[in-house]
Design brief:
It is built from 12 helices and 11 strands. With about 300 residues, the chain is an alpha+beta fold. Strand 10 and strand 11 (about 240) form a beta hairpin. Bound molecules: zinc ion (ZN).
Length: about 300
């Protein structure tokens, strides 16, 4: 198997989709396993370890909070011809083709990349990074660094040419929102320059979200991060909706719950208002819902 064959196998990974919502299971498992190889750890990983770690990753970076289901990719990644499970012949399957968790535990199943692939990944840093980058492309770019840190892969990568951004996007969006955070109004400047104020994409660029005002929000660094991680979203009426899964003590009330159910500070002109289909897709695909009750 050549380097190019390996890249192709990962590029054509069957990633389960419902509508535009991508199941992040396989990309996260691949990233986790690459991270381990890069640290010189064993190729084979016990199912029990993957169940624990992948559950955490799915809770953090997936959108379905209630059912992480780490056994799905542990078993299904074999079908993409990149992964092997030990004692696979002893594992019973559901009619849909998923493994019985009790069998995975009982037979102490371990999983890992096929030997030939693991060898390549261990000996070829740029290959490991290229495949990692490929897996990260299933997620919005603003969380690539967080995911890389969580799986222990160095970041940023410089292997591929990234898609070109419109250099005017930030300025256009900040101007539309009069240089303040659409959630909290934050507008600190260093002389005349806004600081820690950013232009967020509502629909991520990776999903075809354009670099236009209707797909942008001016947000302070804090609210940008919380928005991109799906901690809050917007309703069709531009109300801020906080996830039931969000919690905390210091900062939670003051920086998040205070705005729950309130409308954002709107842009200065009707033509810059967020487009309903972008908001709707953030709500359905990025937000870690359901949202809390409005009072
Ligand atoms: Zn803010």
């Amino acid at each position: 198997m050549t380097r190019e064959d390996i890249i192709q196998k990962f590029k054509s990974l069957k990633v389960w989709k419902r509508g535009n919502k991508i199941a992040p299971h396989k990309p996260l498992l691949v990233l986790y396993a690459i991270g381990k190889l890069r640290r010189g750890e064993n190729r084979l990983i016990p199912y029990t370890e993957i169940a624990e770690k992948l559950t955490e990753l799915l809770r953090e970076f997936g959108t379905d909070q209630s059912k992480p289901r780490p056994h799905y990719p542990f078993w299904r990644l074999r079908e993409d011809k990149v992964w092997k499970v030990t004692n696979a012949n002893l594992i019973g399957q559901t009619p849909k083709g998923d493994a019985h968790i009790t069998d995975l535990k009982h037979h102490k199943a371990s999983g890992g990349f096929r030997e030939v692939i693991a060898d390549h990944l261990q000996n070829d840093s740029s290959l490991a990074l290229e495949i990692s980058e490929n897996m990260l492309d299933h997620f919005r770019s603003s969380i690539h660094e967080d995911i890389s840190q969580a799986v222990g892969i160095e970041y940023p990568f410089h292997t591929l040419n990234r898609q070109k951004r419109d250099p005017n996007f930030r300025e256009n969006v900040l101007r539309a929102y009069e240089y303040k955070c659409a959630v909290c109004g934050f507008d600190v400047k260093l002389q005349h320059q806004p600081v820690a104020l950013e232009a967020a994409h509502i629909l991520p660029r990776e999903k075809g979200g354009p670099d236009t005002e209707e797909n942008g929000l001016a947000l302070c660094s804090l609210h940008h991060k919380l928005f991109d991680r799906g901690v809050f979203t917007l309703s069709a009426k531009l109300e801020i909706l906080v996830s039931e899964y969000a919690n905390g003590s210091t900062g939670f009330g003051k920086w998040l719950m205070r705005f729950h159910g309130k409308k954002i500070n709107p842009p200065q002109s009707q033509m810059y208002y967020p487009r309903i289909n972008f908001i709707d897709r953030h709500f359905r695909e990025e937000f870690k819902g359901p949202y809390r009750e409005k009072t």
